[in-house]
Amino acid sequence: MFVPITLFISAAFVLVPLTQALGKRIESRSAQPKIPTEVQERLERMEQAIDSIAIEVERISEGQRFTTRLLSEARSADALPRGGHDT
Questions:
Q1: CA 72, 76, 82, 83 torsion: positive or negative?
Q2: Tally of domains within the chain
Q3: What sign for the dihedral angle of Cα 67, 68, 71, 76?
Q4: What is the pLDDT at residue 29?
Q5: What is the pLDDT of residue 77?
Q6: Dihedral sign, CA of 78, 79, 85, 87?
Q7: Domain that holds residue 42
Q8: Is residue 64 part of a domain?
Q9: Which pLDDT does position 53 carry in this prediction?
Q10: How high is the mean pLDDT in each 10-residue block of the chain (87 residues)?
Q11: Euclidean distance between CA atoms 6 and 26, whole angstroms
Q12: Could you tell me where the DSSP H helices lie in the chain?
């Protein structure tokens, strides 16, 4: 009875670290592939350009909303009767 328990415990002490090391090795291989630095730099420049385009599009849409509001206010002001004398 003592021999099987001893074998089981010693096998656990040997196999657990081995399986952990093997798991880490497999995990490191399946990690994201390395992106070359020039590609990484280009992606960063593209991201900055897209961000600046998004800001400019938002400014354009704000200007469009402002213009639309001014035009709608001008039309509603033209529809109101004038307070002058009709003689």
A1: negative
A2: 1
A3: negative
A4: 73
A5: 74
A6: positive
A7: 34-76
A8: yes
A9: 97
A10: 78 83 81 83 96 96 94 79 60
A11: 30
A12: 2-29, 37-79
Q: What CA–CA distance (Å, rounded) separates 81 from 79?
A: 6
* Three-class secondary structure of residue 87 per DSSP: coil
- Joined tokens for residue 52: 């600046």
Residue 32 backbone zone (phi > 0: left; psi -120 to 50: alpha; other: beta): beta
Instruction: For tokens 């599009």, name the residue.
Output: 57
**What's the pTM?**
0.48
Residue 5, in any domain of the structure:
no
Is residue 60, in this structure, part of any structural domain at all?
A: yes
Letter for the amino acid at 86? D
Confidence (pLDDT) at 85: 59
Domain-embedded: residue 69: yes
Query: How confident is the model at residue 62, as a pLDDT?
Result: 95
